[in-house]
From TrEMBL:
Family: Belongs to the dihydroorotate dehydrogenase family. Type 2 subfamily.
Function: Catalyzes the conversion of dihydroorotate to orotate with quinone as electron acceptor.
Protein name according to UniProt: Dihydroorotate dehydrogenase (quinone)
Organism (species): Mesonia sediminis
Subcellular compartments: Cell membrane; Membrane
Chain positions recorded as FMN binding sites: A67, G68, F69, D70, K71, T91, N144, N177, K218, T246, G268, G297, Y318, T319
Alphabetically ordered keywords of this record: Cell membrane, Flavoprotein, FMN, Membrane, Oxidoreductase, Pyrimidine biosynthesis
């Protein structure tokens, strides 16, 4: 029903407006008695064999929602009812920011892809925290943190520290986002020395807590093998919880759609092979020494299985969720359940 009826209708309108409309609709719908149970019955797969314990957390299933969808922590409980094992909010910055000028979100229908240059648009940490205080603890929540556009790179650490401190009591794990292509100079923070500085400082902050929480690093798919080897060394040296591979790409290789030349990060099917290559490289060259969350181009149960077999412990959806709808979550979990 989604791909044959709902998606064609939604895809007739501006993607960013559709996103906000969908949020409002779901928020309203879930207030109606019985709707939450309907979605759970239709899409959730309850099977103990799907449970995963990764970086000290117990996930009811390995399929999560990637950051960027629920930026401001507005819909995490409702999204959890669609069958996700975890939901990652953000990217959140200390101060609210508008992001880049519109139009900044583009569908590439022929490629089953999306280009975005949103630029960390969000309402800021304080606004998200107020909503997270009302969390009913139905789903594991990750907090994806970044720096404000106006914050120079030599002061970026302070923004990440603020994000960590303000979200600490309300999320289950953290993700350090230094890999978005849509904030000027942000990817320079993936270089060895600035990245180590940020991660060591956050780990020191983490150690001061009675119960530290996992910190993960989200990396770009456009890194060279040499840079990926540096990432392995940094993860092992800083002893963070793991890696999310990968963010969006700046590559435009093989695209067919009219919007292919738009600036921004590309996600969806064209990213599938490269993100899997990065997962496999990290897993093999690190000798599976840290967990990996695999994301990028998952549009089918087989795509998810491919990432898990390449070395991912968990997977996340974003563009595949938009193109295929919530049935994709169910299909992945059903396929994994059947393999047991």
């Amino acid at each position: 029903m989604y791909t044959s009826l709902i998606r064609p209708l939604l895809f007739k309108f501006d993607p960013e407006k559709v996103h906000h409309f969908t949020f409002k609709t779901l928020k309203f719908a879930f207030k109606i008695p019985g709707v939450e149970q309907f979605f759970k019955k239709r899409f959730a797969v309850n099977d103990k064999s799907l449970e995963r314990e990764v970086f000290g957390l117990k996930f009811k299933n390995p399929v999560g929602l990637a950051a960027g969808f629920d930026k401001d922590a507005q819909l995490f409980n409702e999204l959890g009812s669609l069958g996700f094992g975890f939901v990652e909010i953000g990217t959140l910055t200390p101060k609210p920011q508008e992001g880049n000028p519109k139009k900044r979100l583009f569908r590439l229908k022929e490629d089953a892809a999306i280009i975005n240059r949103m630029g960390f648009n969000n309402q800021g940490l304080a606004s998200a925290v107020e909503r997270l205080k009302k969390n009913k603890k139905r789903v594991i929540i990750g907090g994806n943190i970044g720096k404000n556009k106006i914050t120079p790179n030599d002061q970026a650490l302070l923004d990440y520290q603020k994000g960590f401190e303000q979200l600490f009591d309300y999320v289950d794990y953290f993700v350090v986002n230094v890999s978005s292509p849509n904030t000027p100079d942000l990817r320079a923070l993936q270089d060895k020395e600035p990245l180590k500085k940020i991660l060591f400082a956050l780990q020191e902050q983490n150690k001061q807590k009675p119960k530290p929480k996992p910190i993960l690093l989200k990396i770009a798919p456009d890194l060279s093998d040499e840079q990926l080897l540096d990432i392995i060394e940094i993860v092992q040296e800083t002893n963070i919880g793991g890696v999310i591979a990968t963010n969006t790409t700046i590559s435009r290789e093989g695209l067919q759609s009219e919007n292919r030349k738009e600036q921004g990060g590309l996600s969806g099917k064209p990213l599938k092979s490269r993100s899997t290559e990065v997962i496999r490289f990290l897993s093999q060259n690190s000798k599976q020494s840290f967990p990996i969350i695999g994301v990028g181009g998952i549009h089918s149960a087989n795509d998810a299985l491919e990432k898990l077999e390449a070395g991912a412990s968990l997977v996340q959806l974003y563009t595949g969720f938009i193109y295929e709808g919530p049935r994709l979550i169910k299909e992945i979990n059903q396929k994994l359940s059947a393999k047991k």
